[in-house]
Sequence to fold (484 residues):
Amino acid sequence: MNHLIPLPASLLPTQLEFQLGPDTQILVAPATPETLRVSEFLAAALRHATGYALSIVPDPPAHARDQIFLTLHDDSTLGAEGYELNLTPDGVFLRAQTPAGLFYGIQTLLQLGAPSPAQKPQTWRAATGSIRDVPRFAWRGAMLDVARHFFSVQDVKRYIDWLAAYKLNRLHLHLSDDQGWRIEIKTWDKLATIGGSSGVGGKKSGYYTQAEYRELVAYAAERFIVIVPEIDMPGHTNAALAAYPELNCDGVAREPYTGIEVGFSSLCLDKEITYQFLEDVIRELAALTPGEFIHIGGDEAHATDKTAYTQFIARVETIVEKYGKRMVGWEEIGQAKISARAVAQLWRGEYGAQAIQQGAQVILSPGKHAYLDMQYNEQSPLGLHWAGYVEAQDAYAWDPATLSAGVGESNILGVEAALWSETLLTFDDITFMAFPRLTAIAEIAWSPQAARNWESYRQRVAAHGARWQALGLHFYRSPQIDWE
Ligand code: TNX
Fold:
C-alpha cells in the first residue's frame, strides 16, 4: 500500500493480504459494454501477471467470497473519475460512479498487486485496506512531439499504456512543426506526402494516415485518454510552407527544414487562402477528434507581425468553435482576444494573467519542472537545457497553485508534461526522458498537494523502478533516488 503513484487522496491500510487464486472471478454490475470492457482490461492484466484464466461474471446474483467485484453506483462525491477500493482477505470491492472511475481503481489495484519481479512462479497478492480517491485536476496531460522526429503508431500506443497506468487522461500530440507535418489531410494531401517527408537531421519522417490516427484515438479512449491534436500556427509552419507554395506571401515553396532552430517561419496572414487552408485542416481534425479540444499552437511566432498575430488567433478561434471544439493554445495566445472557453498552456508564465483576465483557464507546463525534454544534468546524453536542468526533484517538488502570481487553483484546468523530440529518436529515448519525471507530474496532477512530499515520492518511485526494470523500460536512474 505504500508505493502507489499517484498517491491516493485517502488511504487506510489494514495490514492483511488478499490473494488471487485460479478460481477468482471478476464480478461486474451493472454489466454494460463499458463496464465489461474495463473488466476485460483487468482480467487480461491479471491473466498476464498470473497465467490464471480469470472469468468475468456479468450481473452476479449475489456476491461470493474470494472475488473481485466491480460496481457502478451513485456517489456524487466521487465525481467523474473517482473510485473507492476496499481490499479484505475475502475479496476486492471496487466502486465508482463511472467506468473511468473503475478504470482508475483498476490501475491502483494492479499497482497494489504488482508481483515482485523475483518471485517465480508468481502469486498475485495485495495488501488490504481501503482507498477513496479523486483527482485534483481534470486535465492530466502528456504532450508528445511527433513532428521533430516521427514516432510510429506502435510507439505512441506503448506510451499511452504508461500514461494510463499513472492515471493521466490527455495525450496532446504535436502533429506539425517546421520539420514535419504528421497527419494526413485529405483536402491538402501534400501536407503529409511532402510536409511529412522531412524530420530533424533528415531522420524519422512520416505521417499518420487518418485511419491510423483514428486507431490511436480509439486505443487511447479505451484507456480513458483523450487525444488532443495540435497543428502549430502561424509560426512553426515550414513543413506546410514547403508543401504548398501558395501559403507563402511570396508564392515560393520553402525548402524542407531539418535543423532545430525555432521562430523563422510564418503562414501568410494577409492571404485568404491561408484561412481556407486552416478551415479545411481544422474541419478534418475536428472530425477525427471525439474530444472537446483542438490545439492551435500559437507559440514563438517571431516571424509574424504582432498585431496580425493577435487578429489571426482570434479568427482561428472562430474556426475552431465553428467545428464545435474549444481552442487550446500555447500561452502566447493570451495576447489576443480569446473567449472564456479557450485554454492557454503556460510554459514560461508570461501571458497567463492575460488569458485569465479574459476568463480562460490554463494548463501548466512550466519548462523548469514539466519539460521532459530538458536534460537531467550536464551529462545527460539527450535533451536540451534552455530552461535549465530538470532533475527528478525539480519535476516533483512544486505546487501548481503557487507557481505564479495571479494563477490560482480555480484558474488551473490541469498540468501537462511536455516531451519535445529534437534530440529523441527511439522509444527508449522517450522513456529515458519520461521516467521518473512523468510519474512526478502525474502525481502533481492527481494527488492532493497536502498529501504529497518529495521524500515519500522518492521512496515510492524506487519500487516502481524495480517494475520498470523487470518490464524492460529504459529509464533514468536518478542519483536522487535509492533504486531497489
Ligand atoms: C520551445 S515550448 C518550444 C518548442 C521547442 C521546445 C524545446 C514551446 C511552446 N515551443 O518549439 O521544441 O522549446 O524545449
Q: What stands out?
A: The pocket of TNX is lined by residues 262, 299-300, 330, 347, 371, 373, 384, 420, 422 (CB under 6 Å). The chain has a mean pLDDT of 96. The chain has 14 helices and 17 strands.
